[in-house]
Amino acid sequence: MLRSCCSALGLLLGLLSAHPASAVRAIVQLKQCGYKSLLEAKVTNVRGGVKVKVCGEEVVLQKEQTQTDAWRFLNWWDPAQKGEKLSDEDLKTLDDYLGDYEYSRPIGQIGHGMLPPNFEGFHIFEGTTSAMVQGIFKFEVSLGNALNRLPTTSTAQLYRGGWTPSEQLKEMQAALGSGSAVSFPWFQSTTTDDSHAYKFMGRKSEPETCAYDCIGKGEAFPTYLTFETCHGKNVTEWNAAEMEWLLLPGLRFKLVSITKVINDPWQEATPKDMAEWLRQSHTMPTKDWGRNGKMTFGPWPDIADAVLAHSIDGPAFIKWWEDRSFPEPYVKGKWDESEYLYSDKHQEFQSAANTRFKLPRISTRMGEGPNTVEYYYRINLQDAEPC
Ligand SMILES: *[C@@H]1O[C@H](CO)[C@@H](O)[C@H](O)[C@H]1NC(C)=O
Prior knowledge:
Elements: H1 7-15, H2 21-31, E1 33-34, E2 42-46, E3 49-54, E4 57-62, E5 74-75, H3 88-97, H4 101-111, H5 129-149, E6 156-165, H6 166-178, E7 181-183, E8 188-191, H7 194-197, H8 214-217, E9 220-229, E10 233-234, E11 244-247, E12 252-262, H9 271-278, E13 282-283, E14 296-297, H10 301-309, H11 314-323, H12 344-354, E15 362-364, E16 367-369, E17 375-383
Parallel strand pairs: 1-5, 9-17
Antiparallel strand pairs: 2-3, 3-4, 6-9, 7-12, 8-11, 10-11, 12-17, 13-14, 15-16
Helix pairs in contact: 3-5, 9-10
The structure holds 2-acetamido-2-deoxy-beta-D-glucopyranose.
């Protein structure tokens, strides 16, 4: 993306540095481009994607490539519309957007500077890619209008579970260090139900660009964000099941903390820890984890001996178990033969192993199961702008 600003703005900021932060921001906003300008954006098809020209800026959107900075110049917060009655179009937009991925997914992808691989709900704008992108802009403007018209509330705790691209995580870590603010240039779905937010942190919710191994590739990480904000818009009326609130793009937040939380304790387990776990029996939390009415599995002293004899720590054990590459003489021939793979013995071990994860069980690609991500980040944010 090319940016054509900023020397005059830099000078202005320099001159204003003695003034309070809010005065600086008011000036910066004048320089920014209001979201309704998207209706006048020039969108042209280019090789592999589209080029968007708006407010003197140029953004090239391509498949399979995110740019978390693409829309940083757009300003979405417009308190002048607050309290206005929602139009029929506003209501239809909220209905379409909420509780369904058909519209929200392509909008999320565009927000992250990526051309949607599949336009889903926006295929109604039959024809060229550029026409569909224009259809998305029109929808986004309508969503911006609807949210700006909704009333503001007092400070609320809003939760968002999901996957954060590494570039954005780095930006938040840097902001925590420097005390500067961050913003997210896309619409964010959040909920007041803290337990609901965990459902989007599993491997099934990984971004498509790195699906199946986003952590391993270092491209995106599971995150649990808590926003303490008075700028959220309560849309629970349209999506009660998820107790949803939306955040307009571009709101500014201060980082309060970022904590890495280990979800799979075996990632940090020593051989001694592993042996200790294997020498204990493990009781299943609910009936459906049991097998044939049996609820307690283990211990496995033969594997515990092998783990100690070969100094196998948690990560090595995980690999060892997946490959069934057991060394002689402890367990060879007992656990590694394919006939054991679906045996009660093997399945019981697997169920017991699944109890180790800290995050709640979720819907996975193979039905309900454990959330097996190795770790996640807990990130707390607060408004950087006064209410
Ligand atoms: C959010 O909206 C729902 C549904 O309209 C309402 O019941 C709830 O009280 C609202 N919450 C707040 C904090 O305003």
